[in-house]
UniProtKB/TrEMBL annotation:
The chain crosses the membrane at residues 78-101, 136-156, 218-240, 246-269. It is a multi-pass membrane protein. One of its GO terms (biological process) is signal transduction. Coiled coil: none annotated. Belongs to the insect chemoreceptor superfamily. Heteromeric odorant receptor channel (TC 1.A.69) family. It is found in: Cell membrane. PANTHER family: ODORANT RECEPTOR, ODORANT RECEPTOR 19A-RELATED. This is Odorant receptor. It comes from Bombus impatiens (Bumblebee).
Length: 346
């Protein structure tokens, strides 16, 4: 698919609308390929977290812990299924909107334009070059539509896997918080129990670090391409509104909505992980630390100190991904688009 789109841009570089559509598809394709390759080449972080999740589900928990585990599993399913279905819906609209309004737009824009078949992805010149028979139009159309769905699977499907794993990790952190809250004076078993909880805390921090190392480079590519496509599609949206192009307006809105939803999902997950990890310190503080042996009470200070070093999702190991980052991207993009709107309408 990437080859077809690049060839189409080379053969027909004068159509700005088609080139912007090609840019969107290329960006999604690059993200999908990058995520699949990254998860395939360096799967250690995902495998460790997945193996730990299987072990956690095989354990026998009390009712309260079981509720926490099931709730986070449900959150992971909702996030994963939600982004994939939204991607399918957006891909279908991206394909169908030009077709539904295509004839009217052609009549208004250029009455002398040849009746060239339209495809889900920009490929008209490529199909003409290879002399694709008209009677195969339906087959080619279906194949290209499936390409869009597969690209969505590679892009948002990889995200759903990541969201499911990280929500499970957050569930285990919440269970650990509950265990710290229940810490009480139980003679010689208190020290042993505290050591077990401390080791569990270190283990969960290790899993979070491995997950961060796996996704870090992917997040850098995700943020870079998303910012470029958001600004480009925003400019396309402004121009389409000014000239009254309904099809371009709807397509630009679809692209913007999809990218913003994807960025919001990553930002929310990063924020949720950070707050859960920081909550361990609060849980330790509100435990009955004043009733436990002095030696254990002193060690609690080190647990609280460790929680003061936040656990972040980082893009490229330097750019923090959380809700603050999301709002910063939104504000910067809107400022940029406001300037462009003034330039276009002036």
């Amino acid at each position: 698919m990437l080859t077809i789109v690049q060839s189409e841009m080379y053969l027909d570089s004068n159509d700005a609308e088609k080139n912007l559509d090609a840019l969107v598809i290329l960006s999604c394709g690059i993200l999908a390929v990058s995520k699949v390759i990254r998860f395939r080449i360096q799967p250690a972080g995902l495998i460790s977290n997945f193996t730990s999740a299987v072990e956690d589900y095989n354990k026998l928990y009390d009712q309260e812990k079981g509720v926490i585990l099931r709730r986070h599993a449900y959150m992971g399913r909702v996030a994963g299924i939600g982004v994939v279905l939204f991607a399918y819906f957006s891909a279908t609209l991206f394909m169908s909107v030009p077709m539904l309004a295509g004839e009217e737009v052609k009549d208004v824009v250029n009455v002398t334009k040849d009746n060239i078949p339209e495809y889900p992805i920009p490929s008209e010149k490529v199909m003409a070059l290879i002399k694709m028979p008209d009677n195969l139009y339906f087959i080619v159309f279906i194949v290209e539509y499936l390409m869009l769905l597969l690209t969505s699977n590679g892009n948002l499907g990889s995200d759903s896997l990541f969201f499911g794993i990280i929500f499970h990790l957050c569930g285990q952190v919440e269970i650990l918080r509950l265990d710290f809250t229940r810490l009480s004076n139980d003679n010689e078993r208190t020290i042993e129990h505290f050591i077990v909880l401390s080791k569990r805390h270190v283990y969960l921090l290790k899993l979070a670090k491995m997950l961060n190392e796996t996704i870090s480079s992917i997040l850098a590519v995700q943020l870079f391409t998303s910012c470029i496509v958001i600004c480009t599609s925003g400019l396309q949206f402004i121009i389409a509104l000014s000239v009254g192009n309904i099809v371009m307006t709807i397509k630009s809105f679809i692209v913007l909505s999809t990218l913003l939803v994807q960025l919001f999902a990553y930002s929310y997950v990063g924020e949720y992980l950070k707050r859960q990890m920081e909550g361990i310190g609060d849980s330790v503080y509100f435990s009955s630390w004043y009733d436990i042996p002095t030696s254990v009470a002193k060690d609690i200070i080190y647990v609280i100190m460790r929680t003061q070093d936040p656990v972040f999702l980082k893009a490229g190991k330097f750019f923090i991904v959380n809700m603050e980052t999301y709002m910063s991207i939104i504000k910067t993009s809107m400022s940029y688009l406001s300037v462009l709107r003034v330039m276009v309408t002036a």
